[in-house]
């Protein structure tokens, strides 16, 4: 296995694969229904990378040091025959971990097949327990529906983490109810600072609640202790309850983790991005469909990573947000 690093000395360890740009939710911070309406044109099927192409790319990345693969979207469970892709990636030598990020609505329908194919870890997005969730997801889906899906996922053996994006004045009143609910379930809950991904989510600094503000508030109600990072590049900062349940904080805004970012992202139509906040990507689909060998693909991936120097969150200011706003890639396209 070759070891490669980018211009800032960061190794490559994680590959995030978006398998679709479609979603059955219209969350206000990702795909607001005012923009992604019923007439919105999503990518046609022939523009998507096939499972064969995705597996080929993952195999080559495994030779370069990638150990973890995460399947994202859009909503990945909308991609037909997804367990087939999980099974193929699970069989790749060197890939030690496969995860999936989902809104959870279709877990009862597809969860067992995904588990049987080799999936063991999922992150479920849930931003409130009360009626706020219905407003946020844009489809009137109740939190109880997702909680039932989470319980099912746990019952079949999937390891579940719940992700909650916190926006000041929208769902911050739900922090304590969420902590209590998932502490009692011993399910890891992760709070995500509201990030300026894409152009359509109405982001500004005033809507951000920082990790430290969250911890101060939570500590008034719960006894939590800091847990040391388990590996280089671990994104979430974890805290532990007295019953062993965990809380995580993803702090792109207040405490950048660019210096340890080991992730590359592949969009569903084959664009390769070195950063969640990227403004452009490399057209890998055209490259691999030109008939190149695996060796040529490996050399291309090495070359692309070797020149990577993204560190957007390190440099985020009001001015940089304004300057880059026009060209940033939306979350449903690049994946979370």
From TrEMBL:
Q: Which residues form a coiled coil?
A: none
Keyword Kinase (UniProt): no
Cite the binding residues for S-adenosyl-L-methionine.
29, 74, 125, 195
Query: Quick one: which pathway?
Result: Cofactor biosynthesis; molybdopterin biosynthesis
| Keywords, comma-separated and alphabetical | 4Fe-4S, GTP-binding, Iron, Iron-sulfur, Lyase, Metal-binding, Molybdenum cofactor biosynthesis, Nucleotide-binding, S-adenosyl-L-methionine
Q: Which PROSITE patterns match?
A: MOAA_NIFB_PQQE, RADICAL_SAM
Q: Which GO terms describe its molecular function?
A: 4 iron, 4 sulfur cluster binding; cyclic pyranopterin monophosphate synthase activity; GTP 3',8'-cyclase activity; GTP binding; metal ion binding; S-adenosyl-L-methionine binding
User: Which InterPro entries has this protein been placed in?
Assistant: Aldolase_TIM, Elp3/MiaA/NifB-like_rSAM, MoaA, MoaA-like, MoaA_NifB_PqqE_Fe-S-bd_CS, MoaA_twitch, MoCo_biosynth_MoaA/MoaC, rSAM
**What EC number(s) does its UniProt record assign?**
4.1.99.22
Q: Which Pfam families match?
A: Mob_synth_C (PF06463), Radical_SAM (PF04055)
What top-tier enzyme class does this entry carry? lyase
Q: Which residues form the Radical SAM core domain?
A: 7-225
Q: Which GO terms describe its biological process?
A: Mo-molybdopterin cofactor biosynthetic process
Task: Name the family.
Answer: Belongs to the radical SAM superfamily. MoaA family.
- Write the protein's name: GTP 3',8-cyclase
The species is Macrococcoides caseolyticum
Quick one: which gene encodes this?
Answer: moaA
């Amino acid at each position: 296995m070759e070891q490669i690093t980018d211009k800032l000395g960061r190794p490559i360890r994680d590959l995030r694969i978006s398998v679709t740009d479609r979603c059955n939710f219209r969350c206000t911070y990702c795909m607001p229904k005012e923009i992604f309406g019923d007439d919105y044109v999503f990518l046609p099927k022939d523009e998507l990378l096939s499972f064969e192409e995705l597996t080929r790319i993952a195999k080559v990345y495994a030779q370069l040091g990638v150990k973890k693969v995460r399947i994202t979207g859009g909503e990945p469970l909308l991609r037909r025959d997804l367990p087939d892709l999980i099974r193929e990636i699970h069989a790749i030598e060197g890939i030690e971990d496969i995860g999936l990020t989902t809104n959870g609505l279709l877990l009862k329908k597809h969860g067992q097949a995904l588990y049987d194919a080799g999936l063991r870890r999922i992150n479920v997005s849930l931003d409130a327990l009360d009626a706020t969730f219905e407003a946020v997801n844009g489809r009137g889906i109740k939190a109880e529906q997702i909680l039932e899906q989470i319980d099912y996922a746990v019952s079949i053996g999937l390891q579940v983490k719940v992700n909650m994006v916190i926006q000041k004045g929208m769902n911050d009143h739900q922090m304590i109810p969420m902590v209590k609910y998932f502490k009692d379930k011993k399910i890891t809950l992760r709070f995500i600072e509201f990030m300026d991904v894409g152009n359509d989510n109405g982001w500004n600094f005033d809507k951000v609640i920082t990790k430290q503000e969250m911890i101060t508030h939570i500590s008034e109600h719960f006894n939590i202790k800091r847990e040391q990072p388990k590996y280089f590049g671990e994104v979430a900062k974890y805290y532990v309850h007295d019953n062993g349940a965990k809380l995580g904080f993803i702090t792109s805004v207040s405490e950048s983790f660019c210096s340890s970012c080991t992730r590359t992202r592949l969009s569903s139509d084959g664009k390769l991005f070195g950063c969640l906040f990227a403004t452009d990507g490399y057209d890998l689909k055209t490259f691999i469909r030109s008939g190149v060998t695996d060796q040529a693909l490996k050399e291309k991936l090495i070359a692309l990573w070797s020149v990577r120097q993204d560190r957007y969150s390190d440099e985020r200011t009001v001015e940089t947000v304004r300057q880059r706003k026009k060209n940033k890639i939306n979350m449903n396209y690049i994946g979370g």
